[in-house]
Structures are given as C-alpha cells and as structure tokens.
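Obj: model holo form, ligand = magnesium ion.
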Amino acid sequence: MSNRVHLIHVSIPMIEPFRISSGEVKEKESILIVIERDGITAFGEASPMSGAFYSSETPQSTWDFLVERAIPALIEKKQFRPEFVSEMVETEMSEPFAWAGLEGALWDLMVQVENTTFMDTLGVYPHPIQSGLAVGIYPTIPELVDACKRYLIDGYKRLKIKIQPGWDIEPLKAVREAFGDIPLMVDANAAYTEDHFPVFDEIDKVGLMMIEQPLAKMNWEGLSKLQARISTPICIDESAHDEDAVKCCIDMQACRIVNIKIQRLCGICRAKRIHDLCMDRNIPTWMGTMPELGIASIHALYLALLPNCTYPTDVEASGRWFLEDVISPPIEVTDGLIHIPQEHHKRPNVNMAVIDRHTVRQTRIDY
Ligand SMILES: [Mg+2]
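Output (holo structure tokens):
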C-alpha cells in the first residue's frame, strides 16, 4: 500500500469578484492536502487568497511552505495526528493557511482511523446554523444595493458590508434605507486610523450589530479608545490571530465580539481554544471565512455548532461565490439557515470530479 501526501492546487472561477479594502480576486484558489495512509484518504484545505489580501500569504507561499517545510517535517516525525500541527506552531507560526490545511487533513485522517466524526470529537450536535450575507465593495451605491437584494432573497440572517475610507457612511445609510431594520454590520478590514474616529461616531448612529476590525490589527490601544467612545460593539478579526492577542484585546476592552477563523489560527485546535477562552470571558464569537471552498467551510460549520458561536457565521451557500464546490452536496442556505447535509455529518464528503476539473498543478510526496 503506498503512503503519500498529494498536494492539489485548484482554481475555481468566482461568480463575482470579491472586493475588500485591500484588493479584488476573481478566482478562488486553494491548496488541497490529501494524505494517503494505510488505505485511508484524508483531505484538508489551505485557502489563501491570491495576492497580498487579508495577509501576506499567497497560494505560492503556502505551496512552497508545505512542500519544503511542513510535509517533510510531518514525514520525519511520523506524527500523523492534529497534535503535530499544534506542537509545530508553538514555535513556527509562519504560514497559518498551510498549517490549517495540513491540520484539517490530519483531523480527517484521525476521524477515519478512529471511526468517529468531527462533530463527536468536538462534542457538538448538528443543528441549523444561522448564516449571514457578506457583500464586498462596489463601484457605486446602486450596484451595492442591487447585490444585497440579489442575495438577501435567500433569507440570510444579517447583512455585512465592507467599508473603507470614502466608502462608509453613504453606502451604509443607503443600505439601511433600502432594507429597513435588518441586522446589519460593517467590516473595515483594518482600513482606518484614529484620525477617522468622527466617521465611527456617524456609523455608531446607524444601529449596527457590530463594527468588524476598524483599526490596524496591532492597534489594541486605538481599538480600546474607540470602543470606549462608541456604543456599537467592536468585533476583532485580523487582531484575533492568536490566543495572547485575543486575551490582551479582551483585557483592554478593545472588543466585545470575536470573529474566529480557522485558517488564520493555524487550524481547528487553536480555533477551538479561542472559542473556549472567549466563552470563559463572556465574549460572544462567530465563525468567519476567508472565504474557503467546501472542505474548509464544512470545518468552520462544525465549529459554528459550538455553544459560544451565537452570531451568524460568514459561511454562505457554495453557489454564492463559487462556480462549483469541491464537496458533494454543496453548502446551501434556506431561510438564512445552513443544515449540514447528512453526507458531511461524519466528515466533509469530497467531490473528486470537481477537483479534477479545476486542478492547475499537483505533486505527490511518497513516504
Ligand atoms: Mg473581517
């Protein structure tokens, strides 16, 4: 029986470009990590955006790190369990997407070897998950309102719009006017500085669920000052990159909500730890997305079942962003809710035909 790690780089066209304050992408790229071991095949997904988008990692840097560093280390240590990644990232936090993808594959291997499920291992039960709609930055306000209209038909439980300096109060007011009293929030992706506080005074009057990451990720003091100044809760996202950072933000009252992202946190284990920490500190959480394809999105949905994930997740229907998805069936949203399909209850059910259609390169490392 051949044991090997198979890396597959896929690129799937997006239905519309994804635009935030730092740029735009038209293709969703992912590096799938496939561990073949003793007759079992396990899948993980590392999901960086192309270009420097949310972070400095790219599909190329993720690929290189997996090929040159992470997979050789795994093969050398022969520790084919999620703890391998937990231990490695204690000293080597670089390339969180690569680690998250590899850890996802090790989870998938573990649940198959132990004949258990992701949900049992996490101690959660399937129930409907509230899904929120995220809408990027558009060239004009009417285009933004049209996009919201197009997708709100699926009944999403809240609307999040992306903002940046010069694209904030006006579009926000237009959306409020068009859709009335719906649960609404904004995400600034760290695009503002303390000079912009008067903008947030205005945003504060719109009655939002939360303002996500208004300031730079390490500007905890600024976040704390802003939170003291406005009544809308601040949610950290980019700032929530590790456990110590989250603790400091909570201690400094720099946030009242935390967006948890598996990819940013190097995997499911660390994401779960942030969830537990926030629960202890009475800080509600929700599961964010980069957005990832189906394998990593299903992982996020498993964590969205945890008790402290009380706000809607950013995981949306597969068809919201992607021409097709690498899992079968794809994720669907009905009346704003995601019911994890039976086929994914044990582990994400992968669709190899879709993967084959969108593979741009691959490599196999035998061990
Ligand atoms: Mg965000």
